[in-house]
Design brief:
There is one protein chain. Helices cover 41% and strands 19% of the residues. The protein has helices at 6-16, 38-45, 56-68, 84-90, 107-115, 135-142, 162-170, 181-193, 210-219, 232-242; strands spanning 27-31, 50-53, 78-81, 98-99, 123-129, 146-157, 175-178, 204-208, 224-227. InterPro entries: 4pyrrol_syn_uPrphyn_synt_sf (IPR036108), 4pyrrol_synth_uPrphyn_synth (IPR003754), UROS/Hem4 (IPR039793).
Length: 243
């Protein structure tokens, strides 16, 4: 259930190696038009000391805006990414070393990395989606860091109805791959709306990071596999291991 295009890529790989798979992303994406979108706060990009990037999608939509307006990525800030995949994607557009946590692709690991540095007086920009990850923002604010939010994109939920749920059942789906809390919570809301879908709780569920594992457990899943990394290469290895 990871978003496009990474979701389709993983499904194609799984089908090629004989693990029957189907892709369904809960979201559609488009550029943000909020009051704190990049179009409203572009000047802040060029006064930042630290830039924190939460996803490849943040990179994509920031780069899309910069290209349309004949602007370049700022060279002054130190760049931090949520994980290796996002860092590699960002390196396509800017020739700078991108720092990222090595042990786990999660907000908690990113915070640990940030706290290792002397950044208490730095101007920090968080590039993210509308209503995206909140943990890093909340923790940095609580510890009185100087942060500013720039929203690069927005997501809209697709409609999930009983016919779609029945289609999932007819495909005999028994495993879910979920890479974000938004997906997990939206799926939980769907289950609440369609009470007859307890079968989803009998599915094996792959999630990224211990925090999502705890959320999945609280919602009701029992067979939970935790991956420390969200990239397809690592997801493929852990899926094959537990298949």
């Amino acid at each position: 259930m990871r978003p496009s295009p990474e979701g389709e890529k993983l499904v194609n790989i799984l089908n090629k190696i004989g693990i029957l798979s189907w892709h369904f992303s809960l979201f559609n994406f488009s550029p943000s038009s909020s009051l704190i979108s990049i179009s409203k706060k572009k000047h802040e990009l060029y006064t930042a000391d630290i830039m924190i990037i939460f996803s490849k999608r943040s990179v994509y939509y920031t780069n899309l805006y910069l290209n349309k307006n004949n602007l370049n990525w700022p060279l002054n800030p130190d760049y931090y990414a949520i994980g290796k995949g996002t860092a590699i994607f960002l390196e396509k557009y800017i020739e700078k070393k991108i720092l990222f946590p090595n042990d786990e692709e999660s907000s908690e690991a990113l915070l640990d990395l940030l706290y290792e540095k002397n950044i208490s007086k730095a101007k920090i920009i968080l590039l993210k989606g509308e209503n995206g990850r909140k943990l890093v923002e909340k923790k940095l604010l609580k510890n009185h860091f100087n942060i500013s939010i720039i929203e690069c994109y927005k997501k809209s939920f697709k409609t999930i109805d009983s016919l779609l749920i029945e289609k999932w059942r007819s495909y005999k789906i028994n495993t879910l791959i979920i890479t974000s809390g938004d997906i997990l919570n939206k799926l939980n809301d769907t289950i609440d709306c369609f009470n007859k879908n307890e079968w989803l709780f009998r599915c094996k569920i792959f999630v990224v990071g211990s925090r999502l594992g705890n959320i999945a457990r609280k919602i009701g899943w029992k067979d939970i596999v935790i991956s420390n990394y969200a990239n397809n290469e690592n997801l493929l290895k852990i899926i094959q291991k537990h298949n």
